[in-house]
């Protein structure tokens, strides 16, 4: 693929085209001004918001995140962070749809416990079934199990989002082979969600063939969140271009950059 083509390589989510393959969260910033500046620097077009922790209009008189992230500019992706059972997750998605005037695109996560924040896979599958029946377009947070990823796709989730490492850990991609297997078998977008710590982690995810990366803590917890957001933007772009270009085969021994045939002496 040529460089010109790579620059016109959109991410398709729920029938809509996005130029940025970086999705970002809105938590853990010191204030809304820093949130807005970091997200601007990231180039992200899809921004995820924890419905249970962020005011989207359900608390009149309090600062509304939509004032600094207007829906006409960003695709707001409400998520079910903080939900530990099927009923709470489903109810949160319904509330988000009501607050956002019929918005059906949601990020589903049903957590197993507060210490690890690993997904409760059985509850996630059950919640996904209910929400798909109700017309939601679900981007789903899950573990890095290729079988579970396939089951979520078969249920009707429009994107599968395996963790790279525990949420907020910054450990990077702990199991690249599982991520690669999910990518190779999926017919829907695959986005790494959770565990990214720095730009090289984001680039690695893209080089594996992931369609995008969602992150929050890696940017918000950096010493300079705005600068890190800019770094992540470049890393995503570089990783995607490297994937499209096709890396050279890894070799055990050296291979001369210049051919030795035809030397003059």
UniProtKB/TrEMBL annotation:
CDD domains, per database record: ThiG
Active site: 107 (schiff-base intermediate with dxp)
Its EC number(s): 2.8.1.10
Domain Thiazole synthase ThiG: 13-259
Entry's Gene Ontology molecular function annotations: thiazole synthase activity
Entry's localization field: Cytoplasm
CC terms in the record's Gene Ontology section: cytoplasm
Residues that hold 1-deoxy-D-xylulose 5-phosphate according to the record: 168, 194-195, 216-217
HAMAP family attached to this UniProt entry: ThiG (MF_00443)
Main function: Catalyzes the rearrangement of 1-deoxy-D-xylulose 5-phosphate (DXP) to produce the thiazole phosphate moiety of thiamine. Sulfur is provided by the thiocarboxylate moiety of the carrier protein ThiS. In vitro, sulfur can be provided by H(2)S.
Entry protein name: Thiazole synthase
Source organism (scientific name): Thiobaca trueperi
Organism lineage string: Bacteria, Pseudomonadati, Pseudomonadota, Gammaproteobacteria, Chromatiales
